[in-house]
Amino acid sequence: MERIKSSIRYVFVTAALIGQSVTAIASEYPAAVQSLIDRGVTISGTFDAPGGMTGYVGSMEGWPVAFYLTMDSQHVVVGPMLNSDGVNLTESKIQELVFEPEKDTHLY
C-alpha cells in the first residue's frame, strides 16, 4: 500500500512540475507580445530598439511584421520605426532576422 501511495505522490509531483514548465514556456513573452503571437505572428528575432524599447520581427501569413514593446512591457507599437531624419530603422532588422535566415534554409 505504501508503494502505491509513493507512486501516486510521484505522479502528482511530476504532473505539477510539467504544469509549471508549460506555464513558463507559455509566459516566455510579455502579455502584449503574446497577444500578437495568439493572433498568428511568428517571431523570428528580437533586438534593442531606440527609446529603451525591444524590437521584434517576424511574419504573419507570410508577410514580414515588426513591432516594438514599450519599456513598461504593457504595449506594442506595430510598424516601422523612423529616426528624426526619416530613415527606416526597421527595414534592416527585417532583412537580417527574417529574410536572411529564410534564404539560408532555401540553399539546401
TrEMBL record:
InterPro entries: DiS-bond_isomerase_DsbC/G_N_sf. The keyword Signal applies. Keywords: Signal. SUPFAM superfamilies: DsbC/DsbG N-terminal domain-like. This is Uncharacterized protein. GO terms for cellular component: periplasmic space. Residues 1-26 form the signal peptide.
